[in-house]
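Okay, is this right?
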Amino acid sequence: MVEYKVPPRLIASGGIALFASIALGQATYSQHDIVKAVLERHPAAALAQDRVDEAQARLDELLGLARLQPVFSGTASGSYGKVAEPPSIESYDTLEGSLTVPLPNRPLNQAKVEQGKAGVLSAKAGLQRARLDIAFLSSQAYYEYWRAQGAKAIAEQALDQAKRQVADTQKRVDAGDLPEADLLKAQVPVAEAQAALTRAEVGVSAAAQTLDNLLGKELDFPLKLAEPDTASQTEPDPKKLLESALKSSPEIVGAEAQVSAAKAGVRVAQHGNDPDFALQLTHVQTTDPTAYSHLTTLSVSIGLPLSGRSVLKSQVKQAQSQLSQANAALQLATEQVRLDVGQGFLDLRGAKATLEATTVTKDIASQSLAKARQAYAAGLTTTRDVLDAQFAYNQALVDENTARFDLAVAVARLRQITGEPTP
């Protein structure tokens, strides 16, 4: 467990409970905690959520428009006029009310509602993709921080080894067992190890800054990060992996939604010149002596477009073209997911093999270093032999540290591709 300072704006933008408990020093926080906190404040997730809300509002609007939409209108008037037989001058009042009910075009409205539903599905797929991408970026930053910490620990260990070797060599030179040149040889790795440690410390700072940026900065209390478990990465079944990806990948879900929207769009275009029907109920009440004092009328109105057939054909053709494009995009998305899953699985397998190889190399280098030190203590080898064995061992530690976190990143990348949540 390592304490890492986060400078944040996060208290005002999400993850309040998490970061309040961090401030109190109550617990250590895992990869999952970090991912959750970043998801709560990352603008890409907020933007994708806004698009989902917008699409849902549009669907609600379409559902409302598909229902009956009665319209009431009324007039009140006063009139003054002459009557011919018998001659007279009359004034009268008139009240008129009208209720108009447009009859919904059910096929057209159903097609528009399907478009709206597809829009919601597409927006949700976009939100899922944004969340998966953010989860991967957060996990990658988390692993890179621990990779840098591992490199720093190795560099510190290498520096301690080099200093101990210089001290031991100095004693042997003072005792006359070794020439003065061996002391100079032993001092070179100290300088190299010091430089490596400085580079490792810079790497830790850079990794911490990446986490700062993802978390939103401005938290001045230490964040205790739990060390990741990179030893239990299991190799998944490639067939099940592909099945899961083809079912839940946001790219495929979004492409399927676009196909549904395009199919509905064709139907919307086909109904573009449908006639409009409306029922109208009118009631007139007047004191005009020349008219009915009360008159109620029920009528049906029809609006039939008499032109625009060429425009309709063009709109249908355009909608059919959009459907063809959506089907092609779905096919491309499916092929791309297949390729990405295959490549991700190969990367995972390669990272696992590399880790196994570097672990074996580290064990061999450790044994070689122990034997070199024993031979050196017995006066059977030179300082150079020990220094070479130390260098080989430290390099093996670096390679294993790199491979371990390469494997962790490969697993996170595969989750991003297949749409699996961070554990």
The domain at 2-67+104-273+308-418 is CATH 1.20.1600.10 (Outer membrane efflux proteins (OEP)). Residues 1-14, 22-26 have pLDDT under 50 and may be disordered. The first strand starts at residue 2 and ends at 6. The chain has ten helices and six strands.
